[in-house]
Amino acid sequence: MTAPRQARDAARAIVPATLGRDPGPMTAAESGSHHVHIGSDVVVKLIDGAGHSRLEREVALAPHLPAGLTAPLLGSGLHRLGARDVRYACYARMPGAAPGIGMPGVDAVTARSLAREAVGRLEALHDWTPAGHADRTLREALDHGGFTGRDALLAEVEELAALDRHGAVSSRLLDGLTAIAERAPLRARAVVPVHADCHWGNWLALDRSVTALLDFEWARFGEPADDWFFLARFSGPHLETVLDVIARATGTCPETLRVACEAREAAHLVSDLRVAPERSDARARPATDRLGELEELVVGRHWWRHAR
Q1: 65: which residues sit within 8 A by CB, 6+ positions away?
Q2: What is the reported pTM?
Q3: Most-buried pick from 44, 49, 169, 193 (CB within 10 A)?
């Protein structure tokens, strides 16, 4: 992985080469998979050229997405950094800041307003009919770890039980996962474009309005519930508010919405936990976190705690 200082120097070199001007001061932003540097009016994302290809996916989609949905792409390509290449994408910096996963410090009125606007933006994405290169990009195989259907989820739970030689996942949790899988929808369709990672860390908002949805690296064809899950699950204390906004805006039965979201959370957790036994000690903590989330899902009945 590129060192932070090298990434900073690369970002400062890329902007003049791409846009023909000095970016001014740039600061590093937190990211789990990229180096991200932010200037007064530009954002640069960097990843080693040999890293995952999802930034290429985002770049391929960016020019074709519905107008006003995301930050405009200003340029992209490869930049030589020492003996290797880094892949980059330059975006216009949009106003506002991310509400953040769990929407910390956001009051109830603001949460409802942001949810309404986010649902509207996502409905515009779901209504979009991509063509040509964008259509082909969205149809490319992507191991997203999400929900694909009842039988697949049941099989993955069985595989998790077989792989969990040390009994980290209790029989109570496995039984709970099986029950969730058994009441899940029979199958998930691939019928509309979805963002598939639209938690509140990937939105920008100003006052009580959203200004952009970022990071389309996981975008694919799916069904709207793939996005409703992320929007609700990562809204912290505002989960019930966000579920209510989604149900009202889309005309979805609240119980059907909860079942769909619960199945998707189960699928993501099982996918993560299935690979946990292969991880080194240095990566054990994420598996521990997932077990806590699984406990909350199954025992705490996260999606049903306040259902009427």
Answers
A1: 125, 128, 134, 216
A2: 0.93
A3: 44
Q: From 53, 44, 51, select the one nearest 10 (Cα to Cα).
A: 44
| Cβ-contact 277, 151 below 8 angstroms | no
Q: In whole angstroms, what is the distance from residue 7 CA to residue 228 CA?
A: 34
Q: How many CB atoms lie within 10 A of CB 303?
A: 25
Residue range(s) of every CATH 3.30.200.20 domain in the chain:
4-92
**Of 44, 94, 97, the residue nearest 69 (C-alpha):** 94
Half-sphere exposure of 194 (CA within 13 A, CB side): 23
How far apart (Å, rounded) are the C-alpha atoms in residues 188 and 204?
A: 29
- Tokens, residue 236: 């912290």
pLDDT of amino acid 193: 98
Question: SS3 of 200, please?
Answer: helix
**Between residues 180 and 18, which one has the greater pLDDT?**
180
Q: Where in the chain is the domain with CATH 3.90.1200.10?
A: 108-298
Per-residue pLDDT tens digits for 96-155: 999 999 999 999 999 999 999 999 999 999 999 999 999 999 999 888 899 999 999 999
Report the C-alpha gap between 128 and 7 in whole angstroms. 35
Query: Which fold would CATH assign to domain 4-92?
Result: Phosphorylase Kinase; domain 1 (3.30.200)
Bridge pairing between strands 35-38 and 42-48? antiparallel
pLDDT in tens, 152-177: 999 999 999 998 877 889 999 999 99
The percentage of the chain sitting over the pLDDT mark of 70, rounded to a whole number, equals: 96
Count CA atoms closer than 13 A to 161's CA, side-chain side.
15
Domain 108-298, what fold? Aminoglycoside 3'-phosphotransferase; Chain: A, domain 2 (3.90.1200)
Per the DSSP assignment, residues forming a β-bridge with 205 are 97, 210
